[in-house]
Write a structure and sequence with these properties.
It is built from three helices and 13 strands. The protein has 281 residues and is mainly beta. The longest helix has 12 residues.
Length: 281
């Protein structure tokens, strides 16, 4: 057997046949010999649209049509721009969110009023884990003593405490995070999350009792395997886990840019309160 080391793709010759294998590239490590995840990362999937597998749809908010569902009047003029892409889903094992009966009914009501209910529409903070798989980059700052994650969406930042900070003093959008190593995997336990964020654009809601356990495992210099296990005894019949790769942004001169979307929704949220309101549809 011949194995070519130090290449991202190696050739292995067995019985005269050549196979291409992904070699295990060296990953960057800090002074503590643990993986160093510092860098700018981004997902390449449709998880923000739906955690579950689904086919393409006219829009995230539908109404009955003569030959099947159509985009709701509130979003119809956006045409294909607001069309929902198909996705294989990111729930481990390919299942669905295990809601109890009441929570499943609530989700349907939220989805039917998506444009008014999804906190993303109003630029509210995305919460955890949704911040990870929104269609924007995130930047990890990492050394043996500290872990900070900055998200381009809404300028969101959260600190992961490496020493156990105890119970969250108050519930917040991004929660209270404690990180610790499990071998070469960074495991982050997130509690103290308020109940106002969604997990995707399909009305996937949660209660203020949700606990999220994130696992960041570097598979190579440019690839992190991300998992998040969601526990919520008030709305779920059992915990479930999502998983996806995070890819390092390799664009030349890549930097995080400003996307403070609050100013973009001021007219939507407060325009009717102007002394002389602008026309509204």
């Amino acid at each position: 057997m011949i194995f070519a080391k130090n290449f991202l793709t190696a050739s292995v010759v067995v019985a005269g046949l050549i196979f291409q294998l992904d070699a295990i590239a060296e990953i960057p490590r800090g002074s503590d010999k643990k993986p160093n995840m510092t860098g700018i990362w981004q997902v390449n999937n449709e998880a923000n649209w739906s955690l579950e597998r689904q086919v393409a749809k006219h829009a995230p908010m539908l109404r009955k049509g003569p030959a099947g569902p159509l985009a709701a009047v509130e979003v119809m003029k956006l045409g294909a721009v607001i069309a929902v892409p198909p996705t294989n889903g990111v729930i481990k094992g390919g299942g669905k969110v295990p809601y109890n009966e009441a929570a499943a009914a609530t989700r349907e009501k939220l989805r039917d009023d998506w444009v008014n209910q999804d906190p993303e529409v109003k630029c509210y903070l995305p919460g955890v884990p949704r911040a990870t798989y929104m269609p924007y980059p995130l930047q990890i700052f990492h050394n043996p003593a500290a872990l900070v994650i900055a998200y381009q969406y809404a300028g969101t930042v959260r600190e992961v405490y490496m020493d156990d900070p105890g119970e969250a003093p108050i519930d917040t959008w991004m929660g209270w995070a404690h990180g610790q190593w499990d071998g070469d995997t960074m495991e982050v336990t997130v509690t103290g999350l308020n109940d106002r964020s969604w997990l995707d654009r399909t009305g996937t809601h949660h209660s203020d009792q949700m606990k999220v356990t994130e696992r960041y495992t570097m598979k190579s210099e440019n690839h992190i395997h991300y998992e998040a296990t969601i526990e919520d005894p008030l709305v779920l019949t059992e915990p479930f886990t999502i998983e996806m790769p995070l890819y390092r942004r390799l664009d030349e001169n890549m930097v995080m840019l400003e996307f403070k979307c609050v100013e973009f929704v001021e007219e939507l949220m407060y325009g009717e309160s102007r002394r002389t309101p602008l026309p509204r549809p």
